[in-house]
Amino acid sequence: MTEGLGRLLLVDDETPVLEVLSEYFSAQGYAVQTAGTGTDALAAARRDPPDLVLLDIRMPGMDGIEVLQRLRGIDPSLAVIMVTANEDMALARETLKIGAFDYVSKPFDFRYLDRAVSAALVHAGALAPVGTDEATTDTLRGLAFQVFHATRGLPPQARESVGTRLESAVLELMREANAGRSMTAEAALAEVELLTVIAADLGDLTPAVHSTLESALASARKALSHV
Fold first, then answer.
1. Is the pTM of this model over 0.90?
2. From 115, 131, 174, 209, which residue has the greatest number of CB atoms within 10 Å?
């Protein structure tokens, strides 16, 4: 696989689902490989290690839970997002305890799915700026982590409005920095700063979380000024 935005392994026993996901993520610029069984997924992960696995929970034979556990044995740092039907949401939440980064449900909300994949890649260190020193990379990744940590703590209504825009903006920052486009990266950072101010003014951020975000934003601004 070529690098692209990241290397994805899509695992599902339903061929139409794999075709839709593969077409979508390939068009976004990801390098994609697919597997229709748990056994094939483990073989693919060993043969050509991905940055992220999108893994269906319900599969015949080796199910997604067992595949997740075995993937953790191959690479404990590998980002895995579970895919579930609505009736399996409780089971999906349990997978977070054994190492899944997140879970998404069918039918897919592709905006949420895109953010979840990008967030997992940032968390795993696969989506990081190129042409920058290690300190700058760590600074921008740290900002992304703090933003997602903050949005997960927002009240539901705020998460659906300001929170999703914050997540999208910081992921756009990482993508633009990853592509070496400093001007558009700075524009995305400015959007993160504005949305942080709005969330704080509305009382959606606690003073402690707001202070942490402000510190991370200041560090990111300083880091981008040297790129």
1. no
2. 174
